[in-house]
Every structure is written in structure tokens, then in C-alpha cells.
Amino acid sequence: MPKSSPYRMKVKENERMTDPSCDDVVVRLRLVPVDGGRVRPFKPGQYVRLGLPGVSQPAPGYFAIATEPEETAGYDFFIKSAGPLSMRLCELEPGAELEVEGPMGKAFDIDAFKGFDAYLIGVGTGIAPLRSVWRHIIRNRQDFGRVAIYAGFLTPLHRLLTDELQSMAKHDIEVSVTVEVGQDNWDGPIGYVQHALAADRPDGSRAVACLAGMSAMVDACRETLQNLGFDERHILLNY
């Protein structure tokens, strides 16, 4: 893949996504072009390389775009404060500039599966590239059959996009949210997303699945999907 030239974008919004009482901080960072123009085109699931201008450390890192390709005003990213770069990114104020490369990466070729059922499965900030997919599907809802999102988080306090996921029913999209560790006010599933998949037993005969998240989760979900009859060629990763 040819290396693209770095360019500048600036922070428009920095919004905390995890509950204020949660020890882990995840923010939604919205970047827009410094010239006020349109963002570079991309496909659902692609990512960019973000770096701090003028410094080599912390080194730049890769982050998935969480907006749909039809959104041309800016990119959204979900960033967990868990390392030197991500900690700095989570602290950026509106107006701060970043060095950007891309978009790049394999993407989720969801449009190759028009007429299929679609299952989007991810955990934690892994739902960022899936958000790009489901927002693209919403704009083209007539092109797909059953659509379901399976999202997994550590605890209820770690949940992301709660309001957005709750609004999916109006787009005829089903949502299952699973947490690894429940709390007193949680009455949903407890466990892992592959357990929710196995319990629901979706029909894999004419279906596509997009997976995003930790490698252990991806491997477990791939095995579950294959056991349910999904074609290995229809289980998509974005890397």
C-alpha cells in the first residue's frame, strides 16, 4: 500500500463517552479539516494514523473512523485513555491540531453483500469501526435483510453509545448488549458476545458478519459463527 502524505486536522469536539464514575476514560474525538473543507473519502471500517505534530514520542497510532462514508464534514474516533498517545489525545481541547495519514486499511466490504442479513459484533472501542458500518447500513437499509448489533463491554459503566444503540429499533436493527461483570442495576446478559450469539443462533445461510475488537474475542466469535453455518468468506475483519 503506497504511503500517503501526512496532513493536518483539528479537534472540533472532545466528549467523554464512559460514565463519569467509571475508572476507564473513553472519549469521542471529532476531527475536522483545518481548511473547513471535506474529509478524505473512506470505506466503513478503515482507519487513520494520528500523531502529535512536531514530536516523535509518543509515536503515532492507528484509530478506526467511527463515522459513515456519507459524512463528509468530519471524522469521529473513540479513544480509550490507556497509553502515552491515547492519554494525550483524550486531553486535547477544541482547536488542537493533529497530524493525520490515511484513511487506510482493508475496510468492511459490506456493499458486496446486498440482500444478505448483517451481523455486527464488537467489544469496547472495537464498536468504532462497526458504527461506521451500521450508519452506512441505515442510509441503505433497503439493501440488507435482518441486521443485528452485538456489543460487549466490561461493565455497565463501560458502555458506549447507549442512546444511539437504543434508537436502532426505529431502523429495524436489533441490538444485544452484553457485559462481562454485572451490577445491581443491570438486568441484561452477563458474559461474552459469543455467548449471546450462540444463544440467539442467527441463520448463517445468507448472512455476513463484521467483527471488531480484541483478537481473543474475534477468534471466539469466528468459531461460534462457523458452528452456526456462516461461510468463512462472509466473516469480515477490517485489518
Describe the structure.
- By secondary structure, the chain is of the alpha/beta class.
- It has two domains: 7-104, Translation factors (Elongation Factor Tu (Ef-tu), domain 3, Beta Barrel); 110-236, Rossmann fold.
- 19% of the residues lie in helices and 29% in strands.
- It has helices at residues 84-90, 127-139, 162-166, 193-200, 215-227; strands at 7-16, 26-33, 47-51, 61-64, 75-80, 97-104, 117-123, 147-153, 173-179, 207-212, 235-236.
- It has a six-stranded antiparallel β-sheet with strand order 4-3-6-1-2-5. A five-stranded parallel β-sheet has the order 9-8-7-10-11, sandwiched between helices.
- The two termini are 13 Å apart.
- The model has no long low-confidence stretch (mean pLDDT 93).
Which features characterize this protein?
single chain, 239 residues, alpha/beta, Rossmann fold, 2 domains, 6-stranded antiparallel β-sheet, 5-stranded parallel β-sheet, 5 helices, 29% strand
Topology:
Blueprint: E1 7-16, E2 26-33, E3 47-51, E4 61-64, E5 75-80, H1 84-90, E6 97-104, E7 117-123, H2 127-139, E8 147-153, H3 162-166, E9 173-179, H4 193-200, E10 207-212, H5 215-227, E11 235-236
Parallel strand pairs: 7-8, 7-10, 8-9, 10-11
Antiparallel strand pairs: 1-2, 1-6, 2-5, 3-4, 3-6
Helix pairs in contact: 4-5
